[in-house]
Every structure is written in structure tokens, then in C-alpha cells.
Amino acid sequence: MTKVGFIGLGNMGVPMAGNLVKAGYDVTGYDLLPANLEKAAARGVKSAESADAAAKDADIVITMLPAGKDTIAVYEKTSVLSVAAPGAVFVDCSTIDVASARRAHELAAKAGKLSLDCPVSGGVGGAEAATLTMMAGGSQEAFEKARPVLEKMSRKVVHCGEAGAGQAAKICNNMILGISMIGVCEAFNLAEKLGLSHQALFDVASTSSGQCWSITSYCPVPGPVPNSPANNGYKPGFAAALMLKDLLLAQEAARSAGVATPMGAEAAQLYQLFVATGNGGVDFSGIIEFMRGKTSAGQS
Ligand code: NAD
User: Fold this and answer.
1) How far is the CA of 189 from the centre of ligand 1 (A)?
2) Is 216 in the pocket of ligand 1 (CB under 6 A)?
3) CB-ligand 1 contact for 17 (6 Å cutoff)
4) Domain coordinates of the chain in residue numbers?
5) Mutate to test the pocket of ligand 1, among 7, 12, 62 (most ligand atoms within 8 A of CB)
6) Which residues sit opposite 132 in a β-bridge?
7) Peptide bond between residue 237 and the one before it cis (omega within 30 degrees of 0)
8) What is the whole-number distance in angstroms between the Cα of residue 33 and the centre of ligand 1?
9) Which of ligand 1's atoms lies nearest the C-alpha of 95?
10) Residue 239 host element (H or E)
11) Which of 82, 86, 137, 288 could cross-link to 165 by cystine, CB 3.0-4.6 Å?
């Protein structure tokens, strides 16, 4: 039976690891926080006392950690790369900077292991329902070997290219999302001032050239899309702090590649202000309230 080591059992890791148990895999997990280990254990994930114990003899080692420094710390400061089974694939599903992702691939290659950077899109809801989109960077061999396991957590798995390509796809996608959400919020604010109803703008824009996911699936005003966070006091969903993280990663990548992304920079600035005024835990679509001059989104 394929043995999976799962390191980082937070909001995303617990349901992802749980879905692998449901699919019949032997999953051993580790997290720094005992409470998170318990949550995973309730879904059938075996608890390990260290990252090394989770990775021991594993065929696939998945990490789902906050940032690049955390992935590098696990790869560099523990023995996970040497204790996993020969031929094991290391899959980092965290959203991290492209440079750290490439460094993680180098460390894995040095230890004779296969590796993928494989960030995900779809949030906690997608992790629960196993409907994530997963975007992988790394060799064809690593991708083919990991694919059956990745498919148990997702609706779509895309091999984006070589090392770092998964992270590149993730930050480009989320830069589009951050910019488009701000555009949609501006349009709804303007429509209100012009006496146009939310529903009227939605009916037109969702079926014409202004159409985008931020309107059709995640409309930032209550009403037109009944399950969007706007109908639930802007509870996340996708927290503004995570959107800011991804926009800053995109800016870092743009700087290092020498590419101008002025709209991405503007979106990062707006989300920075939104988060700095105490809205980090608010859904990212709540920025519409901030644009109306309210400092606290969720409390309209
Ligand atoms: P989280 O903070 O809930 O979980 C991260 C977990 O990693 C925590 O439980 C923490 O204790 C653990 N951890 C940190 N360092 C560790 C170490 N050295 N060893 C073992 N465990 C360690 O975060 P999350 O919401 O699950 O997100 C995880 C990653 O997925 C992030 O990179 C995030 O950007 C990305 N992501 C999140 C979402 C979302 O909606 N939450 C969506 C897409 C992508």
C-alpha cells in the first residue's frame, strides 16, 4: 500500500490528509501543534512525534506549511529527505516564493529524491470536498508518480512545467483574482451611487464582457450569489491576509524577473491597507466595505 507522510496539518492539511485516508492510503501526519494532530487523528491520520517519523519509509511526503522558510526548514533541518522510501516523491503543496520552491527541489535532488512544487487553489471548502485545483512544477517522472495521490484531493491536477512552475502559476492566477476583485468592488460601488441595483449590475456583467469569477462565483455584495461570503458578514472563504500574502509573492517574483505589474502592485497596496486596519481575518471580498470608507468590513 502507498504510504503517505503529511507534514503541516492546519486548515488545509487536515482535510487534505483526511481525504487520502478516505481513499484508502496509509497516512501518517505531523504538525507542531498537538491540537492539529488530534484533528487529523479524528479523520484517521496516524500521529507522528516528528517530521522524520511521519516521513519514515513514505512513498509520498506532502508538506502543507505557511511559507517558504517553513518548507526549507523541514527539508534542510530534519532528516525527512533521507528517511523516506527510496524513490519517494516530495510534494510541497504550500504557497511559497518561487526561489524557495526551486531551493526545495535542489535539496530533494541532492538527496536522490523526486520532488514537485504543487500549490493548490480552492480554499478550505475545496480541500474538504476534494475539489482543489493542483498546479505542479517538476519532472514528468515525479508528476506521474504523485498524480494518483494528488487526484484524490482534487478536481484537476495540472503539470505546469519544471521546478517552480506550479508556484508561478499560483501567484499569476491569484494576482488576476486580487485585481479583478478590486475592479468588481469599484464597479458595484459606482453602480450604487448611480442608482443601479446590485442585481441589475450582476445580471448584465455576469453575462457580458465584464464577466469574471469575482462576479459570477464570489460576488462581493449580498444577494446575487447566495453562497458568497458577502451574504455571511464577509467571513472567509479566503482571508484577506492570504490574498495579501499571494499578492506580495507575485510582487517579489515580478521584481526578480524584472517585469512591470502595476495593477498587481496597486492591488497589493490596497490589500496591505485593508489588512493593516484589522481586516486580515475578513474575506478578501470584504474590501468593498473598506472602499466605501468603512474601516471594519464584516460590521456594516
Ligand atoms: P495553517 O496555518 O492553518 O496551517 C499550517 C500548519 O503548518 C500549522 O498547523 C502549523 O502548526 C504547521 N507547521 C508550521 N511549521 C511546521 C513545521 N516545521 N513542522 C510541522 N508543522 C508545521 O495554514 P493553511 O490555511 O492550512 O495554509 C497552508 C498553506 O496553503 C499556506 O501556504 C497557504 O498560503 C496555502 N493555501 C491556503 C488556502 C486557504 O484558504 N487556507 C488556500 C490555498 C492555499
Assistant:
1) 34
2) no
3) no
4) 3-162, 168-291
5) 12
6) 154
7) yes
8) 11
9) 32
10) none
11) 137
pTM here?
0.94
C-alpha cell at 240: 484577506
Write down the pLDDT at residue 177: 97
DSSP class per residue in 132-166: EEEEEEE-HHHHHHHHHHHHTTEEEEEEEESTTHH
Residue 283 DSSP symbol: B
Q: Which of 19, 31, 39 to mutate to test the pocket of ligand 1 (most atoms within 8 A of CB)?
A: 31
Q: What is the pLDDT of residues 69-122, one digit of tens each?
A: 999 999 999 999 999 999 999 999 999 999 999 999 999 999 999 999 999 998
Crossing angle between the packed helical segments 68-77 and 98-110, to the nearest 10 degrees: 10
170 assigned to active site: yes
Confidence of residue 125 (pLDDT cuts 50, 70, 90): confident
In ligand 1, which atom is closest to the CA atom of 124?
Answer: 40
Q: What CATH superfamily classification does 3-162 receive?
A: NAD(P)-binding Rossmann-like Domain (3.40.50.720)
Q: What is the pLDDT of residues 217-262, one digit of tens each?
A: 999 999 999 999 999 999 988 999 999 999 999 999 999 999 999 9
The amino acid sitting at 115 is S
Q: What is the CATH number of domain 168-291?
A: 1.10.1040.10
**Among 113, 170, 245, 294, the one annotated catalytic:** 170
Cell matching residue 138: 517538476
Long-range contacts of 265-272 (CB under 8 A, 24+ apart): 266/179, 266/182, 267/175, 267/178, 267/179, 267/182, 268/178, 268/244, 270/182, 271/178, 271/240, 271/243, 271/244, 271/247, 272/244, 272/248
DSSP tag of 85: P
Q: CA 45 to CA 218: how far, in whole Å?
A: 33
Question: What is the Å distance from ligand 1's center to 214 Cα?
Answer: 24
Which atom of ligand 1 approaches the CA of 119 most closely? 44
- Name the grid cell of 61: 511526503
